[in-house]
């Protein structure tokens, strides 16, 4: 897949999206699906690293996002 992944060392974006853990030290591992118009289409709050690729593919299909590229 070709999509941007955010690196947020300052935790400013994590704070803005409300994903910091209770101690404020770490961001929760959530996936935000954001449309071309900038609106949030879906949020996956139950990310499982072992199946993340398949889970993302299934969610994108459910959202009707077309596959592009090779």
Evaluate the radius of gyration: 13 Å
Largest sheet report: 2 strands, antiparallel
Oligomer: single chain
* Unreliably modeled segments: none
The amount of beta strand, in percent, is 5-15%
Inertia-based shape: globular
Observed structural traits:
2 helices
Please describe what this structure looks like.
With 70 residues, this protein is of the alpha+beta class. The protein has a domain at 29-70. The protein is 24% helix and 13% strand. It has two helices and two strands. It has helices spanning 12-17, 52-62, and strands spanning 31-34, 40-44. Strands 1-2 form a two-stranded antiparallel ribbon. A hairpin with a 5-residue loop joins strand 1 (31-34) and strand 2 (40-44). The longest helix has 11 residues, at 52-62. The protein is globular, with a radius of gyration of 13 Å. It starts with 11 loop residues before the first helix and ends in an 8-residue tail after the last helix. The mean pLDDT is 88.
Protein topology:
Layout: H1 12-17, E1 31-34, E2 40-44, H2 52-62
Antiparallel strand pairs: 1-2
Brief account:
With 70 residues, the chain is of the alpha+beta class.
């Amino acid at each position: 897949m070709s999509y941007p992944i955010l690196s947020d060392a300052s935790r400013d974006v994590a704070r803005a999206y409300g994903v910091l853990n209770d101690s404020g030290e770490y961001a929760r591992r959530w996936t935000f699906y954001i449309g071309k118009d900038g609106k949030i289409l879906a949020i996956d709050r139950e990310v499982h690293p072992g199946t993340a690729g398949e889970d993302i593919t299934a969610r994108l299909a459910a959202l009707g996002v077309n596959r592009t590229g090779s």
